[in-house]
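User: Fold this; tokens only.

Assistant: Input:
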Amino acid sequence: MKNYFLLLILMLSTLLNAQDVKVDPVAIQILDHMSDVIGQLNSCAYTLSTSQDINDPENGMIKSLAESKVVMVGPDKMLIKVNGDKGNKEFWYDGTSVTYYSFTENNYAKIDAPDNIIATIDSVSMKYDIEIPAADFFYPAFTDDILAGFDRVKYLGEKVVDNEACFHIKTIGKDMDVQYWISNDAYNLPKKYLIVYKDRQNMQYEGTFSNWEINPDIPEAVFEFTAPPKAREIKILAKK
């Protein structure tokens, strides 16, 4: 499958090489295939290492680093553990609620949530400014959202990331550019992405995936939160 898919990519790329196309069908085919594979997963687990530019009042532009370990079981179970410069925290989603726990402060909060992962990601982002790492990759309309939000979509060839062959794609928009590196294997899962915010002094956000597990068997008890000893329950206020 890998060889056939790569051959098709190379053929299309050769045909389009001399043309100035705004939306490269080669790039769209790769993104569509990646999105289809993710959409058909029953469960998955992965590690995401991120680097984010932050404008610190005292030190100017600095990098904020974090590592997230994510487990999902469709359509309504999710666990995220984040260790980084902004503290260590976990999120449990059990199909009815999201529980946030801060290891740094030993406190937790529970909020009601919709009955599926995608709607929950939208809900906690809009209401509470809680961002789920790399959530965009799991939206069914991933490619359509790119076409709606960017002026150009380009296939830049095959590159190597961490000794792994990847398809390299760049999307160009008014306020931001995004580069994607998609693994060139049977699954075509995301390997790396880089966001450049042109409207924010070219600040960057970079994420690298590793340790992908495809359809692992995860016990439901994993997604049940039990408050640690002396943990304090708090309230998270919704945005106005």
